[in-house]
Amino acid sequence: MKAARSSLALALLCLLRAQAELPVQPGFDPDKFAGTWHIMAAASNCPVFLSIKDKMKASISKFSFSPDGDMALRALFPMGDECKKVEMHFQQKGQVGHYTTTGEEEERDLYVVETDYERYAIVSSITESGKKPSTTLQLYMRSQDVSPQLLKKFKELYSTMGLTDDMLAVMPKSGEWQRDKQGDGT
């Protein structure tokens, strides 16, 4: 009986993990995706995100790709009167559009779920850190304008990942001051 319960618990964990992973954009083209994007909405069960989500504004992210397929991400997150700068490097993992990074404290898988390259992208990440993985879904825009249709599509996707409305942050525009302080915005 105890073995059956353990197997059931393991199966449920695998189901939850599989539910959180979305497919990668078919035929993903890194050259078209590269460049500057704004994070305009995010949903996550990450405790750090949940503690600051109501204070967040749209951020600027810049994606670039190396000839061997690896990806670099530079981002600026407005926090009050300051910008927090983050740089991450990912290795391509299997299919183009799926990237991973391993740090001392966490492992992160990033999936480009859907994009039209010109207006929007939906990106998912699964972070393994400590005992509990966290799932994040982000809506990127080339500009700081989000259509109601794209926001509706985004909300439908995050609910399939076990994320709920109380885990959502729709970021207000952050202003062009970021570009002035940082040169190119990143």
TrEMBL record:
Which top-level group of life is the source organism from? Eukaryota
List, alphabetically, the Pfam families matched: Lipocalin (PF00061)
- Record keywords: Signal
Write down the PROSITE patterns for this protein, in alphabetical order.
LIPOCALIN (PS00213)
Signal peptide span per the entry? 1-20
Q: Return the InterPro entries for the record.
A: Calycin, Lipocalin, Lipocalin_CS, Lipocln_cytosolic_FA-bd_dom
The molecule here is called: LCN15 protein
The answer to whether keyword Disulfide bond applies is no
The family classification in the record reads: Belongs to the calycin superfamily. Lipocalin family.
Q: Which residues form the Lipocalin/cytosolic fatty-acid binding domain?
A: 34-173
The molecular function GO annotations come to: small molecule binding
Q: Keyword Nuclease: yes or no?
A: no
